[in-house]
Amino acid sequence: MSSARGDSEILIAGAGIAGLATALALARSGHGVTLLEKRSGVSQDGAGIQIGPNGSRILQSLGVTAKLQGKIAQPSAIRVMDGVSGRNLTRLPLGETIERRHGAPYWVLHRADLHEALLTCVETHPNVTICYDADVVAARSDDAGVTVGLSSGETIEAALLVGADGLWSTVRTRVMGAAPLVFTGKSAFRALLPAAAAPPSISLSDTTIWLRPQAHVVHYPVRGGDELAIVAIFDDQALGETWAGDADKTAITARTRHVASPLRDLLQQPDRWRQWSLYTPASAVTWTSGRIVLIGDAAHPPLPFLAQGGVMALEDAVILAALLQNASPAQLPERLQRFEAIRRPRTTRVMQASARNGQIYHQDGWKRRARDAVLAATPPHILMQRYDWLYGWTAAGELHRAGVIDL
Ligand SMILES: Cc1cc2nc3c(=O)[nH]c(=O)nc-3n(C[C@H](O)[C@H](O)[C@H](O)COP(=O)(O)OP(=O)(O)OC[C@H]3O[C@@H](n4cnc5c(N)ncnc54)[C@H](O)[C@@H]3O)c2cc1C
Predict the structure, then answer these.
(1) Residue 16 C-alpha to ligand 1 middle, in angstroms?
(2) Residue 241: what pLDDT?
(3) So what's the pLDDT on residue 6?
(4) Residues 80-98: what's their mean pLDDT?
(5) Atom number, ligand 1, closest to the C-alpha of residue 165
(6) Domain ranges of the chain
(7) 8 alpha carbon to ligand 1 midpoint, in Å?
(8) Contact assessment for residue 158 and residue 168, using Cβ atoms and an 8 Å cutoff
(9) What residues are in contact with ligand 1 under a 6 Å CB criterion?
């Protein structure tokens, strides 16, 4: 495995949402791309994903939508419920309302379906090569290009390396020297349930969020409505640290005894739960070093309380591809720095807003009562307008604001 140094070949470490979308965006603008994935195939643990209009717009522009036919559901609202009393706190319009406002839909789907759709587009593009069992362990950048080392002992030379290797990024830690992540004390549990097995009072069409002190639960339809994806997140150090491991079902049932009965009935249904303990960077991470750049969770992993980590990876993909268009090999380091300068403010804002949502969702006592009063008193369309900065994002707008007109 090797390629000539200084040519236009781009290496991407990691074939998750960030790596696949970036490979596709770069290939479509004429670059030769090699994706290095450490697993033996592209797979995604069984779970759902919500894609706001800022993400669906990108999937549409990359030509991925046709591959998602029949796999997507479009919830008509986000229903916010009190997880203890079962009271409806507010109902935020999605469906046609959000699509009209932002010019793109709000989708919910199974992660495996999103990965498969991206992978099909990438595999059928003549400019992309995918190498599995390719575990990136080292990288060096110099004036002529990058040299990337694999755990097999092989080395590869190319024009640049994109580190899209996720939350536990080797490129971030070994190459950029970033500090280890810190456990937040919060853990997410995820399960999938056939829609037919859900209790009758559970919505099968909307995204529903149940709020309870120190915890919340989200569920929404996936597989075109055939299944329900469920995520339960608890503030609880005692749950320990596990990443994508099988969870003991009793850990959830023991923590949801005092919740509204429809929610308790729902949480008792799935046979299999998996746990993701939630981590955050100890300090800001540098994303660029010469001809090496981090994107997606490797660069800016948000907590999942805004459902935007995967969407930020899609945004990174199209902005990076736009900035690398027509770049000569000598211009690459400067283009990567521009990428970091453009993307950092937005991804920082998303990380901060996600963390803040987590606090608001899990509030107790007077803060909880104040939150519920605000939700009850504020018209839903006003609550949704607070997210215009998030869902109304376009690549053209971001590049224009950054003064990028001369590429
Ligand atoms: C509970 C929970 C719910 C979430 N819900 C949402 C949501 O609704 N909407 C949303 O947009 N986001 C959501 N997210 C966030 C989203 O899952 C992530 O932000 C997204 O998956 C990041 O994609 P990525 O490609 O950067 O990383 P990953 O998906 O982690 O992909 C990294 C890839 O790199 C590979 N890799 C790792 N190391 C190496 C190496 N050394 N060499 C080669 N390959 C390597 C891995 O095998 C993997 O394939 C959620 C996250 C959690 C935890």
Answers:
(1) 6
(2) 76
(3) 41
(4) 97
(5) 34
(6) 10-180+282-401
(7) 27
(8) no
(9) 13-19, 36-39, 49-50, 134-136, 164-167, 170, 188, 190, 231, 276, 296-298, 304, 307-311, 313
Instruction: Determine the residue of 12, 20, 38 to mutate for testing ligand 1's pocket, defined as the one with the most ligand atoms within 8 A of the Cβ atom.
Output: 38
Amino acid in the structure at residue 330: A
How would CATH label the architecture of 10-180+282-401? 3-Layer(bba) Sandwich (3.50)
Are 286 and 7 contacting, i.e. CB atoms less than 8 angstroms apart? no
Task: Dump pLDDT digits (tens) for 107-128.
Answer: 999 999 999 999 999 999 999 9
Cβ contact 146:292 at 8 Å: yes
Measure 371 CA to ligand 1 centroid, in angstroms: 31
For the CA of 48, the nearest atom of ligand 1? 8
Q: pTM higher than 0.90 for the full model?
A: yes
Measured between alpha carbons, how far is 390 from 342 in angstroms, rounded to an integer? 15
**Closest-lying ligand 1 atom to the alpha carbon of residue 188:** 1
Structure tokens at 344: 């950092």
Distance CA 119, CA 106 (A): 21
The 10 Å CB-count burial string (b at 16+, else e) for 137-169 is bebbbeeebbbbbbeeeeebbbbbbbbbbbbeb
Residue nearest to atom 21 of ligand 1 (CA): 310
